[in-house]
């Protein structure tokens, strides 16, 4: 199946030759491109950065996001050179913006008549580099492969693809969720949920994603010292300087060019630091299960899920030992494996 093969190549996080689609197509002139618990994400006109604008009463959470983000970046950048970093990308911090910082917004080219329609100007904002969404051809492939039948025929197909929200397409990698996609559920490309069974159907090597997530979580726990609560692992477009892809030197040739997906880490406003004691261990386990089902789950009745958990566990323990000689990694894994799911989590 040609469509499945294309998605397999695209989502494998390996570069491949394709026609480059202009980044300028993703610029929304300060339109919202995403939303979290503490803020709304706006694209900035320079196309490379975004502003996370604090919601009402959420400024402390956004400041916590900034502090944790700084610490995560510093930890990953300062890992011992003998440690092989996981293939994860983290947006760069740009700056913190106070409300009505006219000089900064003027420097971004915001015209006077735009100030009234740009909520970012009247609130605290955290600006970071942007995780660029999937290209138009990739979004079309996702819709053609995964959407319910009623959305695959015209004019519904063109209508869906033309929606602004669907242009802001990142993929949430759910290694901990295995279920069929309901033809009656709402279909959306923004924050597209890709489940482990769908990855298997596409022929993707799920172990690659599991190892990356496991090694990243180990660094968050024993390097950064945070519980990783509500952290997200998503697929977006890779940067040419990304550690995920070793792109060959192709000189000044504009076309063809290499494109690839990369895994990105985002959303650290709910992360909290923990103590190395019984309460801290419970905090880590709670965060693991409270989060969306990015990580493989133990004690599954499906042998593929069990095998994937073993891959995750092995990579997590290995990286934990490299990052910190003294840690609670084995206790954490044992507690996760012995965890009794709540009624609510049975439906995740």
Write the layout of secondary structure elements.
Layout: H1 2-11, E1 16-18, E2 32-35, E3 39-43, E4 49-54, H2 59-77, E5 88-89, E6 93-97, H3 102-107, E7 125-129, H4 136-146, H5 149-152, H6 156-162, H7 164-167, E8 171-174, E9 192-195, H8 196-201, H9 206-224, E10 232-237, E11 257-259, E12 261-266, H10 278-290, H11 303-323, H12 329-337
Parallel strand pairs: 5-12, 8-9
Antiparallel strand pairs: 1-11, 2-3, 3-4, 4-7, 6-7, 8-10, 10-12
Task: Give structural notes.
This protein is of the alpha+beta class and 348 residues long. The chain is built from twelve helices and twelve strands. It has helices spanning 2-11, 59-77, 102-107, 136-146, 149-152, 156-162, 164-167, 196-201, 206-224, 278-290, 303-323, 329-337, and strands spanning 16-18, 32-35, 39-43, 49-54, 88-89, 93-97, 125-129, 171-174, 192-195, 232-237, 257-259, 261-266. The chain has a five-stranded antiparallel sheet with strand order 2-3-4-7-6, covered by helices on one side. It is globular, with a radius of gyration of 21 Å.
């Amino acid at each position: 199946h040609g469509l499945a093969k294309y998605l397999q190549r695209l989502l494998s996080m390996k570069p491949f030759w394709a026609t480059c689609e202009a980044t300028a197509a993703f610029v929304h002139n300060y339109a919202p491109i995403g939303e979290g618990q503490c803020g709304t994400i706006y694209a900035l006109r320079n196309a490379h950065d975004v502003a996370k604008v604090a919601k009402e009463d959420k400024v402390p959470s956004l400041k916590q996001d900034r502090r944790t983000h700084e610490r995560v970046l510093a930890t990953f950048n300062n890992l011992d050179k003998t440690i092989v970093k996981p293939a994860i990308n983290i947006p760069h911090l740009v700056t913190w913006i106070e409300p009505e910082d006219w000089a900064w917004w003027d420097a971004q080219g915001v015209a006077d008549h735009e100030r009234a329609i740009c909520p970012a100007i009247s609130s605290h904002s955290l600006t970071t580099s942007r995780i660029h969404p999937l290209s138009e051809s990739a979004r079309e492939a996702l819709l053609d492969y995964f959407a319910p039948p009623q959305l695959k025929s015209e004019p519904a197909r063109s209508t869906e693809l033309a929606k602004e929200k669907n242009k802001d397409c990142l993929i949430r990698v759910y290694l901990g969720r295995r279920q069929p996609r309901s033809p009656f559920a709402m279909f959306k490309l923004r924050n597209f949920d890709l489940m482990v069974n769908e990855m298997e159907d596409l022929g993707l090597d799920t172990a690659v994603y599991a190892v990356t997530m496991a090694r990243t979580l180990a660094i968050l726990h024993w390097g950064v010292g945070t519980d990783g609560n509500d952290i997200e692992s998503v697929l977006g477009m890779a940067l040419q300087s990304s550690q995920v892809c070793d792109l060959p030197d192709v000189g000044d040739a504009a076309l063809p060019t290499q494109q690839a997906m990369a895994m990105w880490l985002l959303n650290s406003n709910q992360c909290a630091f923990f103590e190395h004691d019984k309460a801290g261990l419970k905090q880590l386990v709670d965060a693991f299960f409270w989060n969306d089902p990015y990580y493989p789950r133990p004690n599954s009745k499906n042998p593929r899920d069990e095998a994937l958990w073993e891959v995750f566990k092995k990579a997590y323990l290995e990286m934990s030992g490299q990052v910190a000689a003294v840690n609670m990694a084995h206790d954490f894994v044992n507690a996760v494996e012995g965890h009794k799911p709540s009624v609510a989590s049975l439906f995740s």
